Amino acid sequence: MKNLVIVESPTKARTLGQFLGKDYQITASMGHVRDLPRGEFGVDVEHDFKPQYVIPKEKIKAVNNLVKVAAQAEQLWLATDLDREGEAIAWNLLRVIAEKGKVKNPQYQRVVFHEITKEAINEAFEHPRKIDDDLVEAQQARRVLDRLVGYKLSPLLWKKVKSRLSAGRVQSAALRLVVDREREILAFKPEEFWVIEAMLVGQRMESRGQEFSATLIKIEGNKAEVKNKTEADQIVSDLNKAIYKVGEIKSKDIVKNPSPPFTTSTLQQAASTKFGFAPKRTMRIAQDLYENGLITYMRTDSVNLSVNFVTSARKLIEEKFGGKYLPKQARAYKVKSRLAQEAHEAIRPTNVQVTSDKLQVASPAHQKLYDLIWKRTVATQMETAVVTENTVMVNALGNKKYILSAAGQKVKFDGFYKVYGKIPIKEQVLPQLSTGEELKLNKLNSEQKFTQSPARFTEATLIKELEKNEIGRPSTYAPTISTLYERNYIEKLEDKKIGPTPIGKTTVDFLVKHFPKIVDLSFTAEMENDLDLIAQGREQMAPVISKFWEEFEPQVAKVTEEAEKMKVEAEETGEECEKCGKPMVIRYGRFGKFMACSGFPECKNTKTLAAPTGLTCQLCGGSIVMKRTRHGRMFWGCSNYPKCKFASWKKPDVESKKKESTSE
Ligand SMILES: [Zn+2]
Ligand SMILES: [Zn+2]
């Protein structure tokens, strides 16, 4: 065999195979070939924190095969992904081939590309390089740091908070954001205020008959602050007798710019908001699209677009939408990122001619995500939209002088919105008014409102916050959030919102008290920045980790010795245990929430927690709820259990039942 190419996955191997000739054999490593050992510390803190990698048991056979095939190749090409993770896989592959194959310095070439297309592959294989040790070191440093924190903190949490907990470095800082927000919401005191609105109509030919609404903004020249019903009623009664005249009229054109091309973080946010995709799911689908050669590499924080792509996008825009949708000059986006050298481009389609309906991939989810990426990218190269905003001031003279304001907006040119097929702007047209014109009052409305507490995070807004605080990287957003769910630190509430569980709150309290740095946002950001500097060769792994460890290790010892156990507050359910009469409380297990007797360990009574479904039981007319078996499998059951025994693995087919009964 002449050439052996190693990549991470079979899909990537297949796509690559279409572009490399018969002289190349392509094989997949199936991800990392070595990692830190499970159930063992695996870091030599005495010797520069050297990681002690092992080949996981289930991979030994595949790795041995890989080594054997590699020995037969005349030329070895390492074509794993282009970021730190991919670089580390390539480096570990090479080490394994060297050690197992007993070759001191195996000959190899490292090739990187950020899209799997003919041009990119040719280019990469014409310009191979060697493994970038700085990138490898940055990946190792992250792995080792996370291991130090996880391995030392977790047992401490078991002892001082609750058994089987675990702590992670970035996760803990993210969890703190969620807990802090929840407490802000709890502490928030809503303030009452009133909004007063007049329904007015013009008197001239041009404006007659067209009612519009204007909101009170000023009283005697000061900002209108209406605090309670008494005040509101007084103003309404004065405004009822007032004389209304049109004051200043203003009109201006607002230019709307398209959003920049997708990065990992903005793609995850958009897919979560639009489709409700969890970040982990978005990444899995994006990886599929990348490995099938359809989009560029999905882990990036660059907003750059290649010149070739922009040229072909502009051609498409002119053909498909017409010249007026094409800006005179191509739009470029500035890369503010530290990582610009690692990931070259934003997430974009590899071929702009391929629209989602021509897509050769499987699922509707793939199609949706591709469509989202395609439209966002094409929009970046389209003309800006123009919206005309009109504001009309209305002077009302009663016992006092009032100013009301009416606003209208109209789309003048749809620009890049064209690609989305709809414009996210609510048009509101004001009648043709002229200054000094007298207005007739049709009606006054006053409405009680309250100031709003800050909103709970959604997955999308949490990712945004992580990025804003610089504690996330393209490779970490999705795993950070899914880990918080898996460990029952956060839970999903209604409307895609996220809230902390009692365990989450107590864990954060414990860490804030004893390891303030671990949950300090700027410290975590600094740490991430150090990792970036290592990747650029401007810092070294050992001193960075050592600085952290020298403070962290004695603190672990001190807290183990001195800290008192913290109690996780129990969530009441309002139900009593039918076995012993003590209150039932919510507990968290491997499969999420369940009800347990607060008399534990004396009383071991537990019950599954039911989630309402809105469906009706066909046997007894009770309501159908979703429950889990003790083994975690979801099923549909009747809320009247044990009186009614209805249970089903599949969703009860209530709709078709209804149809049957009406046709009878
Ligand atoms: Zn009990
Ligand atoms: Zn029933």
Automatic annotation (TrEMBL):
Q: Spell out the subunit comment.
A: Monomer.
| Pfam families given in the database record | Topoisom_bac (PF01131), Toprim (PF01751), Zn_ribbon_Top1 (PF01396)
Q: Which residues form a coiled coil?
A: none
- Molecular function (Gene Ontology), one example: zinc ion binding
Region Interaction with DNA: start-end pairs: 166-171
Reactions accelerated catalytically: ATP-independent breakage of single-stranded DNA, followed by passage and rejoining
Q: State the similarity comment.
A: Belongs to the type IA topoisomerase family.
Function, as annotated, reads: Releases the supercoiling and torsional tension of DNA, which is introduced during the DNA replication and transcription, by transiently cleaving and rejoining one strand of the DNA duplex. Introduces a single-strand break via transesterification at a target site in duplex DNA. The scissile phosphodiester is attacked by the catalytic tyrosine of the enzyme, resulting in the formation of a DNA-(5'-phosphotyrosyl)-enzyme intermediate and the expulsion of a 3'-OH DNA strand. The free DNA strand then undergoes passage around the unbroken strand, thus removing DNA supercoils.
PANTHER family attached to this UniProt entry: DNA TOPOISOMERASE (PTHR42785:SF1), DNA TOPOISOMERASE, TYPE IA, CORE (PTHR42785)
Q: What class of enzyme is it?
A: isomerase
> Which NCBIfam families does its entry note?
topA_bact (TIGR01051)
Supply the EC number(s).
5.6.2.1
**Protein name per its UniProtKB record:** DNA topoisomerase 1
Q: Give the species this sequence originates from.
A: Candidatus Curtissbacteria bacterium RIFCSPHIGHO2_01_FULL_40_12
| CDD domains the UniProt entry points to | TOP1Ac, TOPRIM_TopoIA_TopoI
Record keywords, A-Z: DNA-binding, Isomerase, Magnesium, Metal-binding, Topoisomerase, Zinc, Zinc-finger
Top-level taxonomic group: Bacteria
Domain Toprim: start-end pairs: 2-116
Can you list the GO cellular component terms from the UniProt entry? chromosome
Query: Where in the numbering of this chain does the Topo IA-type catalytic domain appear?
Result: 132-557
- The residues responsible for catalysis, as annotated, are Y297
| InterPro entries named among the record's database cross-references | Topo_IA (IPR000380), Topo_IA_2 (IPR003601), Topo_IA_AS (IPR023406), Topo_IA_cen (IPR013497), Topo_IA_cen_sub1 (IPR013824), Topo_IA_cen_sub2 (IPR013825), Topo_IA_cen_sub3 (IPR013826), Topo_IA_core_domain (IPR023405)
